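SEVERITY: medium
COMPONENT: batch folding queue
REPORTER: lab tech (J.R.)

DESCRIPTION
The queue accepted two submissions in a row. Attaching both inputs and their returned structure tokens so the on-call engineer can compare them side by side.

ATTACHMENT 1
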Amino acid sequence: MLRFCFSARAVSASLLTVAFAAACTRTTAVSSSSYHPRARAITVTTVPLLVKEQQATLPFLAAAFAKGGALEGKEVYAFSPSTLTVVEGDTIHLTLINPEDDVHSFVLPDFAVSLPGNKTVDTTYVAKHSGIFPIVCAVQAHLPMMSGQLVVLPAAIMAGADTTASTNRR
């Protein structure tokens, strides 16, 4: 009788192992699906950090902007957010906001948009290749400080995450 119970436990353990293996196999099959590119809406705003107009508020800037000062001929602006993360193949609907009077630009290696003062520009960009790409403002006085990066994740590594997320929502 003891031997039969042991065998029943062994059979139960084997069935659990088979069920677990089947579940793993199903997960692997789901993970091998391809990523489906998405449309993503991203808003980026230009932000003045240290600019000449702030000299009355921040008196140390007068020396910084003066001849020989640390910011001579420069102003410090930023993009907010400065890092954008998408997946290869995604279409990015960008809303670029420049709330001030200075002209800026939003430049990627294969894409450039002028940002006039006190304007909002809507544009679209397709992330065709994975990698990390610099974003800059091409106004010479704003370089190198006004910069950021576009991080494009490979679609292949996102395939399982995309399918798993869809499966978990059901």
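ATTACHMENT 2
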Amino acid sequence: MLPIMRKICAVLTLLAAGVGPACAAPLDEARLYLRGGQGVSVDLPKAFSLFSGAAKAGDPQAAYYLGMMYQNGMSVPRDAKAAAHWLQFAANRQMPAAMFALANLYLSGDGVKRDDQAARRLIEKAADLDYPDAVMAMAIGLRDGSMGFERNEALAETQMRFANRALKQKPTGGM
């Protein structure tokens, strides 16, 4: 364990007052290196390494972060095919953020063959899981007749109300 992580664990253990060690799991540690904070500097290569190991071990959240790092060229050259692979892995495990990100790849044809119907299915699945950005995208698709959706103004208006409610409750943060 890195010295800084040992210090963090020691502080957390003291704060836990004897409940036991409260050390960060690999995914939490990776997020710390991705965003920085708690006395830890941003270290994208370390974050990438930790996300990669956890994703290869089957963690869908780590796969999502790994996919986003590939998509955005964070610590590695931008690789849309690798991004699509890891986002698909996470989407198959019911991660709505991954579904939405993968839908955007299908809409742009970035790393995958452009496919509006595949994008629509992913947006609908993510919206069904109450992912605010997907609910909003679905409303826009219905309003405009885009993203594989047939134009339906009445349903678009209903979806827009759901989207506005969901966005008001959306937690801050993200990648």
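NOTES FROM REPORTER
The longest helix spans residues 153-169.
No errors were logged for either attachment.
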